[in-house]
Amino acid sequence: MDPFDLAFAAAREAAGLGEVPVGAAVVRDGTVLAVAGNRPRALHDPTAHAEILAIRAACAAVRDERLTGCDLYVTLEPCPMCAGAISFARIRRLYYAASDPKGGGVEHGPRVFNQPTCHHAPEVYSGFRAGEAAALLRGFFEGRRS
Ligand SMILES: [Zn+2]
Predict the structure, then answer these.
(1) H helix intervals, 2-129
(2) Hey, which residues are catalytic here?
(3) Structural domain containing residue 117
(4) What single-letter DSSP state applies at residue 132?
(5) In a domain? residue 146
(6) Does residue 145 register a pLDDT over 80?
(7) Which of 43, 121, 131, 143 registers the highest number of CB atoms within 10 A of its CB?
């Protein structure tokens, strides 16, 4: 199973609930530990981004506050908050689909992993299925305007 398939499915599910369509999956050694979609509106929680929920669920699954050796797959460049959580969780590799020039915190904005105050930076790989992720977001926001 391609973890991006799970992340995209979670993003589409989020869109169906009126959430911004972002999905994330945490994987260790080929085992999926957690999959989550964006839920700020449903949970009345501005921190309920897909990455945060996936990290929390994966930590609960392994009963550890660190996800050493785990990789995170997400459909959009993480925001600064999520990049911080990814660092604290000691995620090994971050894979994301679309870049987010407006809200991203990895290759845009504060570039969290490149700061001297960041004590753990994952390996970062981006651009996977970026067109699909961008189309999903575009479709969601166009639908909201109409
Ligand atoms: Zn975020």
Answers:
(1) 3-16, 40-43, 50-62, 80-88
(2) 51
(3) 3-137
(4) H
(5) no
(6) no
(7) 121
